[in-house]
Amino acid sequence: MGTQTKAMKVGEAIGKQVGRARHRRGWTQRRLSEAVTEHGGRLTRGAVAKIENGERGVSVDEWLLLAAALNVPPPLLLVPLGGEEVVEITPRSRIHPHLALDWVTGDEALVATDRKVIGRGEWLAGSEPLRLWRNLRVLQNDLTSVVGWISRAEYAGDAERVREAKSAHADVLEALHAHLLTMGKAGMTPPGMHPQTVADMEAVGLDVAGLPVFEEEGA
Question: CB under 8 Å to 88, separation ≥6 — which residues?
């Protein structure tokens, strides 16, 4: 990809993406303005028209309000997937929208126009909190799955499957516990754990002192 390739700037991309998302919903510009108001913001119909025409930029707050009003993932208003061939993230990075999306979502480091990675070491260090949050979600999903496995095995009356499921449950609890400690050491405050999860950790011999717990409504 040559450095002279014509690229769409992010501000222009936002306008086009807002227009596309609005048309998919069958909304007028006035209806989008009303939807923004419903989310507590304010953009007049005229402002929406200027944004879509590339005559007006948007602040970060407005970008998020528009994404909420249109009910689309915010990154998809920044990156013209399926539309333009090249998007200009910076003057040094005129790249394919898929590469831009990888960077915007924290999956990959930013690349230059020639696709050479820019500062991967610094990017890896800076993106560590995001990786920790994502790994937390994976472990929480694993926990949900193994709890379901235990229930199904107990319902079937299969003692061997129950034993295997409970062993897997203990392994996931241990991994989740270790990950929560890692997050704490990184200066991050994870969301409160379900009281039953914390009780299960304690039951398998894990130290739960200091772990965040959310209180169930009515408890």
Answer: 7, 8, 9, 10, 94
- Chain segment 67-104, per-residue pLDDT in tens: 999 999 999 999 888 766 799 999 999 999 999 999 99
**Tokens 């990184």 -> residue:** 186
* pLDDT 10s digits, 21-31: 999 999 999 99
Residue with structure tokens 């061939």?
A: 85
Nearest residue to 46 (alpha-carbon basis) of 62, 58, 29, 61: 29
Distance CA 50, CA 66 (A): 14
d(CA 197, CA 143): 9
Q: CA-CA distances (angstroms) from residue 144 to 100, 101, 131, 172, 211?
A: 33, 29, 20, 10, 19
Helix or strand or coil: residue 73? coil
